[in-house]
Amino acid sequence: MAYWLLKTEPGEYSYANLEAAGRDVWDGVRNAVALRYLRAMQPGDQALVYHSGKERAVVGVAQVATEPHPDPRTSDPRWTVVDVEPRGRLARPVGLAEIKADRAFQDWELVRLPRLSVMPVEPALWERILRMGGGVVR
């Protein structure tokens, strides 16, 4: 199992939207590096859901439900999507400022490449974020 971070603008699609849907297509990824990461996802992988924009915080956990597949909303074969399901909110959001203040995260893409919308999360960083957020509330 691998760990990932998925960014979303909460005004367009929030973790609450994913909870309401129960399962949904994670789409809209167009950056080549982010698409490479998305294409590496497998069912059962876990993902932190990060609200970008004004919020800038990890808010919840999702699980990858499908293998990567072509985006059904376009005929362009370059665009790939996965289906994800909510697994729970963090007890409290973990803000970007808090992450940046912790030296353990200094080499992570979220800190180094802030515009990247999909990125891997090392297991130690995954556990650290879950602890910082007080765990997952289902």
UniProtKB/TrEMBL annotation:
Domain of life assignment: Bacteria
Coiled coil: none
Any matching Pfam family: EVE
Entries under SUPFAM superfamilies matching the protein: PUA domain-like
Domain called EVE: residue spans: 2-132
Range of residues in the leader sequence: none
Record-given protein name: Ubiquinol-cytochrome C reductase
